[in-house]
Amino acid sequence: MDATPVAVEPAALAAEIRRAAAARAPLCAELAIGPEGAVRLYHGDTEGVRGVRLDRYGPHLRLELFDPLAGGPAAVEALLDGLMPLLPPAGGLFLLERYRGHGGAVWVRGRRGPGRVVVREGPARLAVDLTRARNTGLFLDTRAARRWVAELAVAGPVLNLFAYTCAFGVVAQLSGATRTVNVDTSRTALARGAENYRLNRLAAPSRTFLRGDVRKRLPWL
């Protein structure tokens, strides 16, 4: 896949990412995002260097590069070295070079692990896979929406459309929803959703997970 290299000095970029991560500390405290939580530490498109993201999942970090660095592999290695101060002792650092167009994220630094971990968001326990080529199983930028659902879900049914791994369903049921139904086209995503329900010891009666096109299913729900 063709991509335009990003001209940036690795040490300067690493320092910028470390500053962004430190600036998030008050927000993490306000939202009660603890050591087992998940949070985006740097979003380059809005914070400085396009196509660079760094997320924390529990003790682990995942760096995504949407474009190559102008300095090539040596620049990537220097950037990884500069991010090591952010890595907890028990964590591993995973790298996803999206511009390659194939393959998933790979372990590159810290403690080696399988890449599948469980993170906490409020009372919810949610499984993520740090090695996946695209989404890990949890959209970090929809945290506020999940909090909103938690406030509205008390003592009523919740229909979760385009459910993906059913994080919204889990949050709704933990918040007191009388029933949750999750609809998605992906059998794999719904299987991961069922895993999230089991992690939280939630009942999942018949028709909790429905596979199909929402536009075709909705009239029958």
Structure description:
With about 220 residues, the protein is α/β, with parallel strands linked by helices. The protein folds into two domains: about 10-115, Transcription Regulator spoIIAA, CATH 3.30.750.80; about 140-220, 3-Layer(aba) Sandwich (Rossmann fold). It has eight helices and ten strands. It has helices at about 10-25, 25-30, 45, 70-85, 145-150, 165-175, 185-200, 215; strands at about 40-45, 50-55, 60-65, 90-95, 105-110, 115-120, 125-130, 155-160, 180-185, 210. A five-stranded mixed beta sheet has the order 1-2-3-4-5. α6 links the parallel β8 and β9 (about 180-185). α1 runs parallel beside α4 and α5 packs parallel to α6. The N and C termini lie far apart (about 40 Å).
CATH class of the largest domain: Alpha Beta
The gross shape turns out to be elongated
CATH architecture of the largest domain: 2-Layer Sandwich
Biggest sheet layout: 5 strands, mixed
Average pLDDT figure: 94
CATH superfamily of the largest domain, by name, is RNA methyltransferase domain (HRMD) like
Class inferred from helices and paired strands: alpha/beta
- Residue ranges: pLDDT <50 for 5 or more in a row? none
For the record, give the distance between the C-alpha atoms at the N and C termini, rounded to a whole number: 42 Å
Helix content range of the residues, please?
25-40%
Tally of distinct domains? 2
Radius of gyration over alpha carbons? 19 Å
Approximate strand percentage: 15-25%
The overall strand count is 10
Helix tally equals: 8
Secondary-structure element series: HHEHEEHEEEEHEHEHEH
Please give the order of strands in the largest beta sheet: 1-2-3-4-5
Provide the CATH topology of the largest domain: Transcription Regulator spoIIAA
